[in-house]
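Data deposition worksheet. Section B asks for the primary sequence of the deposited chain exactly as it was used as input, without tags or linkers unless they were present during the calculation. Section C holds the resulting structure in C-alpha cell form. Section D is free text for depositor observations; keep each observation to a single sentence. Incomplete worksheets are returned to the depositor.
Section A, Depositor: J.P.
Section B:
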Amino acid sequence: MTDTVEPPVIKPPAGEPSPLTRKDFVSDQEVRWCPGCGDYAILAQMQKILAEIGVPREQTVFVSGIGCSSRFPYYMDTYGIHSIHGRAPTLATGIKAVNPDLTVWVITGDGDGLSIGGNHLLHCMRRNVDVKVILFNNRVYGLTKGQYSPTSLPGHRTKSTPMGSIDYPLNPISVAIGAEATFVARTQDTNTKHLQETLRRAAAHRGTAFVEIFQNCVVYNPTAWDHTTDSSVRDDNIVYLEEGKPLVFGRDSDKGIRVNGMIPEVIDVDSNGAANEGLAVHQESLDNSSYAYMLSRMQHPEFPLPFGVLRCVDRPAYTDMLVDQVQQSIDSSDADLNALLHSSDTWVVE
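Section C:
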C-alpha cells in the first residue's frame, strides 16, 4: 500500500501578505437579486479584479445609494456604506477627503445616480474626486417595481407612464464627458472579459473614473439591450474602442466610422479596414473632450454604440490637491493648537 503524499504548502515570504483570491472579497451575506439579473455578473467580476490587482480589503470602501445595485456593499467583504438615495458620491467624496489612502467605489443606478443624485454625481466628476463610479443602466426603476427612469426611451410604457414616456432620456456617458470626467467608459454585464478589463482600468485611474454598464432588468425591462446581446445583430450594433485603432465594426469588420467635420458617418470598408482612408482612429487620451462627446452621441439604430474607454486623461485629482493644500496650511502656520485648546475659554474679537 502506497502512502498518500500531501503536496507542500507554499507560504509567502515572511512579512508579505498571502495573494488574494475572489473568495477573499465574498462576504457572508446571502446575495439577493432576481434570478438572471446581471448584477451577479458585475459582482463576480468586481471581486475577481480586486483580487488580481491586490487591493487590500481593509483599504477598500464601497458606497451605494438606493436601488437594486445598491445592495452591492453587503456582498463585498470590504468596508461599505449603504447610504441614502442619490448621495453616494457625496459620502464617497468625504471618505476620500479625510482618508486619501482608501480606494473608494460608488455603486449606483440610472435612477439613483441620474435623478435625485444627478447634482451630486455631476460635481463629483467636475471636481475629479479620486473615486470610481459604476453606474448600472437598465433604463428602468427596478427596486420600486418598474417606473420609468431618466434613461428610459421615449414611448416606454411603465407603471408610471402607462401611455408611454414623453421624457427625453439622459445619456450617462454624455453627462460624464460634459462634466469633464477624466475617465469615461462603457461596457456590458454579459461581456465578462470586456467588463473585467474595463473595471481593471477604472481601478488604475487617478481621478474620477465613470463606467456605465448596460444590463437588462429581467423583470421590468428584459429587452432593453437585446440589440447589444443578441448574437445575430450585436456585431453590427457595437463598435469596440481601442487606442490607436480605427473605428471598425460589423460581423465581418466591413463597416467603419468616418468623421466628416465633426459629424460621424457610417461607411463600408474593405477586408483590410485599417487601410481605408478617412476612418476615424480612436484617441482616448485627447484632453479636448469634443471627440469623446461625439462618440457618446452615436446612438442606436443610426450608429453602433461605442464600448470601451471613450476618454482617459491625466489631471490633478481634487482629493490630492486638497491634501496638499491642508499640508501647506499646516507648514506655513505658527499656530499652536495645543496652546489654543488649553487656553482660557474667552477671547476678544477686534
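Section D:
The longest helix spans residues 39-53.
The chain has two domains: 22-244+283-327, 248-281.
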